[in-house]
Design goal:
2 domains, mainly alpha, rod-shaped
Length: about 220
């Protein structure tokens, strides 16, 4: 105690107020820094929070806009899908309607196949060598069963060559015979078109051998 009094007593009187002022100034600075610094930090924190809130609000608005865009696109897609589904349904119904109709079978007319008659030059010498007599070209009497009268009947029906006779059906030959009267209906022209075809193609040997087997052209 005495030591403390001695210390203060040794300090000059003018220095004490100065020390007190300095100490007060330091304390005031420290207190101001303490309270003033807290306000600054609070202000900084508040600004940070405000910035975060603003950012969140911006993100929320962007999210809402994106959701509305997706909803509109989805609605358009559903409309297109519905339209496509309706078109498919209509097509299916039409297909079923068509499939339910029994198709009408189109029958094409049957075109008779005519024998192909190649163009073969008439060889009178070859014909004479086989038959032993002179054969005139397109003489229908070469055909076994055809005589001069029947030859005339065919000429009246514009059948004047071997090739033309080869294209006649048996029915047509019978019709030609009927045009001459009852006496001609007894003839059987079943082989006449084939014989005429052989003559037109110069198959004299084959024709002669075949005629040997025939009976009056039958």
């Amino acid at each position: 105690m005495n030591l403390s009094l001695n210390i203060f007593s040794s300090i000059p009187c003018w220095l004490i107020p100065l020390l007190v002022g300095v100490i007060c100034a330091i304390l005031g600075y420290l207190l101001g820094r303490l309270f003033g610094g807290g306000d600054t930090n609070n202000t900084v924190d508040l600004d940070v929070y405000k910035s975060r809130i603003a950012k969140l609000e911006t993100d929320l608005a962007a999210c809402k806009a994106s959701k509305e865009s997706v909803s509109r696109f989805s609605g358009a897609g559903n409309t297109a899908s519905s339209f496509a589904a309706g078109a498919v349904t209509d097509a299916t119904i039409k297909s079923n309607d068509v499939s339910g109709v029994t198709p009408v079978e189109v029958i094409e007319p049957i075109v008779p196949i005519e024998p192909v008659v190649p163009v073969v030059a008439f060889d009178a010498a070859a014909a004479k060598a086989v038959f032993g007599k002179t054969i005139k070209q397109d003489d229908l009497t070469v055909v076994e069963g055809i005589g001069p009268k029947i030859k005339e009947l065919f000429h009246n029906h514009d059948v004047t060559t071997w090739a033309a006779l080869s294209k006649c059906s048996v029915e047509k030959c019978e019709a030609v015979l009927k045009s001459g009267g009852k006496r001609f209906e007894l003839h059987k022209p079943g082989t006449w078109p084939k014989q005429a075809d052989m003559a037109a193609n110069g198959l004299w040997k084959e024709l002669n051998e075949w005629q040997d087997l025939l009976d009056g052209g039958r």
